[in-house]
Amino acid sequence: MTPIRHNGSGGSDNDAVLDAVRDCVLAVGVRRTTLTDVARRAGVSRMTLYRRWPDVRSLVGDLMTREWIAVATGALPEHRPGVPAREVITEGLVAAVRAFGAHPLFRKILDVDPELLLPYVLDRRGASQEALLELLAGSLREGQADGSVRAAHPERQARSVLLIVQSFTLSLRTMTDEDDPELASEAFLGELRVILERTLTP
Questions:
Q1: Which residue among 31, 71, 73, 101 is least packed, with the fewest CB closer than 10 Å?
Q2: Cα–Cα–Cα angle for 177, 182, 184, nearest 5°?
Q3: pLDDT for the residue 12
Q4: CB atoms near residue 196 (< 10 Å)
Q5: Residue 160 to residue 133: CA distance in whole angstroms
């Protein structure tokens, strides 16, 4: 699988701004982050920020897009010769759920500002979801070509798989009991692997 790189925020200058937003959000959460705080951390003027982002939420939206794409694509391994695409997809998606669960920004937003994620669950797809769907659909086509993934409309199949993975990513901690090995997060990730295998096997 080839990682999709997000360029929407426009290069290293914007990366420095998004890094500053990330540091602010990790320190105080989204609601207490101000454009003044971000500008100070990034070493730019407030007017520089206003020319690109009208408010903190738009900044945080670009930050989430950058971070989520990096987490998801970073977890998906490259296709390996002789390894069925289904195995690569399943391994990568389970690794992505694990990586999101350990990601400091994702955990902070889930703990302090979960309403930021609701539009992408209830109303519309975000840029990171679109990028992952593109990546998934391409990988599913590879799996259909090598016979390891059942034949189906690849975009519909990718969206269905993402629905499964999203539910584990967002809600896993509501179902786990880390004191019980059979109900700990790794046990549930094992269940996710089984679900994906059975969903994709011809």
A1: 31
A2: 40
A3: 65
A4: 21
A5: 10
Tokens (6 digits) for 193: 């692997």
- d(C-alpha 134, C-alpha 96), whole Å: 16
Asked whether the CA dihedral 101, 193, 72, 63 is positive or negative, the reply is negative
Which pLDDT tens digit goes with each residue over 9-56? Answer: 445 678 999 999 999 999 999 999 999 999 999 999 999 999 999 999
Write out pLDDT tens, residues 125-172: 999 999 999 999 999 999 999 999 999 999 999 999 999 999 999 999
Task: Yes or no: say if 96 and 72 are a contact pair by the CB < 8 Å rule.
Answer: yes
State how far the Cα of 88 lies from the Cα of 76, in Å rounded to an integer. 8
Angle made by CA atoms 173, 179, 182, in degrees to the nearest 5? 80
Contacts of 24 (CB under 8 A, 6+ apart): 33, 37, 38, 41
Q: Give me the pLDDT at residue 13, please.
A: 73
Annotate 112-172 with DSSP letters as a single string: H-GGGTHHHHHT---HHHHHHHHHHHHHHHHHHHHTSS--S-HHHHHHHHHHHHHHHHHHH
Cα 64 to Cα 104, 148, 149, 202, distances in angstroms: 12, 33, 31, 35
